[in-house]
Amino acid sequence: LWVDCLSFLRAEDMQAAGTRLCRSLAGADVPAEVAARFRVLGVLRTTGGTVRRWPSERWTRLYAMALASVGEISRVLATYAPDHVGGATGLAASVIFGVADAHLSCLQRAPVILACVEWKSCRLDLVAPARIIRMASELADLGLWRPASDLLRTHDRDPRSPNPYPRCTIGQRGEEDADAFTMICKFLIDRLYSATYVNESVDDALDLSRAVAAGRAAVHNAPFPATVAPGEFLRAAYASLELGRATSLMGQFVGLGVLVRPCRDAEPIHAPPEGNRWSAQAKAESYFREGLEHLENSLRRMGGGDNMEEPWKMEEAFAATLAARGELLYCASSVLDRLHQPLNIFPKGGQWGAVTAGNLTRASLSDLAGSFCRLQTKIDACGPSVDVQRACADPSVPRGALILQARTAKDLAKVMAFASRMGNVPGDQLSVFFDYSLVVYLDLFGPHHPLTKNVKRLINEYVGIRSEDLNMAGIAAGVNQWLREGRSGDRMRSA
């Protein structure tokens, strides 16, 4: 009864209602806290969800933040989707509380709406850092990577501050800062990779610089522990992973001449070459070296990836890091192919050794194929049959592992296309990796997600099949048949 009554109250009437309610409940809590709690729960009841309150949160502050969010979303809906203004509460609940609201799934323009929301006007300072991290994850899952990163980042580093790293909205502890910076780096790099092509864009250059700066900050806040502690170890591994991905893309952008001058926080960390003048090639080499240093250090520390207390998470981290190294080698190969100059990125006798485009491409294919087959073997072991769509619906298979597999398959096909142009490998097998990626993305994200659209563009470019001509039933059957034929015993062959 109280929930129903409170649902009609305005925010300014909550105090009086709470006082009366507390008397009825024999002083269960301070009046405003009880009133706010019932108001939040009452709102969520209309969307069919529940709420988790972190210990540092108060119901009054959570209610104020939710109220501000609903108001901001209503403002955006009134402009872009006036017929759906009544869904503001459902959209807010889906992001703030993780409620799987039916309105969100039926409103195809939900990502467009949420991308226009000014989240920093939604009183985020009132809620726990963990909630902001979770909200950012919800937005990123919709393909809203830039809003998700903005949610975690206040502004770039103050030039007057001695701290060389950007600041973050969340947390006072190093772990929370490390998680936030890792996510900022990941979200921005995911956005850039979803664009299909490297292009000269001011927004892309800024996001890439921010990603490198955030990745460096993450590694700074999450060093590898002296002893094996799974939580700390994985935090450090993922920080190194995302910095490796960011520096790979930065090296490619700089080496191809797309980005001439990164932001100050993202400048190369190695000493400039003789003469103290940076060329595009020298800058690219520095970024590739930096990425390799972190990725290879992480791979060495993880060993085989199967000696930790959290086997799934460690297996996923190892496979992701191996694939990231493969992507870095591909980015370096594309720069070398363009410049026709040897790149000094590998250590050799204490110095950085020169390599050829062909060697880099073969090493890239080896890493990407090894990562894909290793993780696919573990995914297939979770069920009685080899079926990628079954795996997407299987709760025992982590969603993150499937997303990683789809990304690795897409990257592997892309590198195979590049290698076939150089005569290193035949190009007649790349379509099945694109197909695998497409099937997973469609199952997990649907047809309108940026990742799904990106794979469709790549299929059109490299395979020559337009989106409207794709036969998804036939593609899924072909992928499953290929997976079954690619097994050797209980493992997937990498050859």
Structure overview:
The chain has helices spanning 2-6, 14-24, 31-47, 59-80, 88-96, 102-106, 110-115, 129-141, 145-152, 174-193, 202-221, 230-255, 280-302, 311-339, 357-380, 388-393, 399-422, 430-445, 450-462, 472-485, and strands at 343-348, 351-355, 487-488, 491-492. The chain is mainly α and 495 residues long. The strands form two sheets. Strands 1-2 form a two-stranded antiparallel sheet. A hairpin with a 2-residue loop joins strand 1 and strand 2. Helix 10 (174-193) runs antiparallel to helix 11, helix 18 (430-445) runs antiparallel to helix 19 (450-462) and helix 18 (430-445) crosses helix 20.
Beta-strand fraction estimate: under 5%
Oligomer class: single chain
Describe the global form: globular
Order of H and E elements: HHHHHHHHHHHHHHEEHHHHHHEE
In the sheet with the most strands, the strands line up as 1-2
Helix/strand structural class: mainly alpha
- Cα separation of the termini: 66 Å
Helix content percent band: 55-70%
Note poorly predicted spans. Answer: 21-29, 154-173
Strands, count: 4
How many helical stretches?
Answer: 20
Kindly state the mean pLDDT as a whole number? 79
Main sheet overview? 2 strands, antiparallel
Whole-number radius of gyration? 24 Å
